[in-house]
Amino acid sequence: MMEKFSQKITHAMNVTPQQAWEVISKVEGVDQWFASLIKTCRIADGKRFCETHDGSKLDEDIIEVNAETKTFVYGIPSQEMLPVENIVGTMKVKSISDQKTEVEWSATFDADKENAPVAQEAFRNLWTMGLKDMETFINSKNQ
C-alpha cells in the first residue's frame, strides 16, 4: 500500500544567491547544470521534459516559480527511475552571505513502505550530485 513520504537536503555553495536562483528559475537547461544525470531538457506547455543518459524520461509539471521567495516547485506524477509516484519537489535558494548560498531541495512522494528508504537515499544522492554539478556549472561560467 502506498503512503506519503518525504526527503530533504540542504547544500551550501560558493555562488551568490542570485546566480543559483538564475539557474533554477530559468527552469530549462537542467541538461547543462545537471549534465551528469540529464541528457536532454526542453520546455513546452508549462511542462519540462527531461531524459537521463540511460533513457529514463522525466515529464515534470512546473507548479511554481516564485522570484520573491526564490522557490521553484515541480511535480512528477510518474517516472521509471524509482518505485515512487506523485513526486512534488521544491528547490529553495537561501542566502548565507553575498558569495555563499544554501539550496534546500525537498520532495514529497508516494511509495510502498519497503521502497521508501531506497527512494529517500536515491533522492539524497541525486540531489547532492545535482547541486554539486550546479555549483561547478555556475563557477565555470563566471571565469
Automatic annotation (TrEMBL):
SUPFAM superfamilies: Bet v1-like (SSF55961). CDD domains: PYR_PYL_RCAR_like. It holds the Pfam family Polyketide_cyc2. It comes from the Bacteria. Coiled coil: none annotated. InterPro entries: Polyketide_cyclase/dehydratase, START-like_dom_sf. This is SRPBCC family protein. It comes from Aquimarina algiphila. The lineage of its organism: Bacteria, Pseudomonadati, Bacteroidota, Flavobacteriia, Flavobacteriales.
